[in-house]
Amino acid sequence: MKKPKNAVYMKQDNRKNILNIIHGKQISRADLARKTGLTRASISGIVDDLINQGIVIETGVKESASGRKPVKLGMNIDYLYALGVNIRYDHCLVGLSDINGTVIEEERLDFSELKNSDEGIEKIVVSLKRIIAGNVREQKVLGIGISSPGPVDIYGGVILNPPRLELWQGAPVVAKLKQEFAFPIFLDRDAVAATLVEKNYGKGRKYKNFIQIEITNNGIGCGIVIDNKIYRGVDGFGGEFGHMSIDLNGKQCRCGNVGCIESFASIEAIMESLEDACPEVKSWQDIVIKSKDDDAFVDIIRREARYLGVGIVNVMNLFELEAVILSGEVVFEPYLLITELRQFINQRSITRTIKTIDVLVSEKDYNQHSVSSATTVLEKFFSGELMDF
Ligand SMILES: [Zn+2]
Question: Residues lining ligand 1 (ion), CB within 5 A?
Answer without folding.
Answer: 243, 253, 255, 257, 260
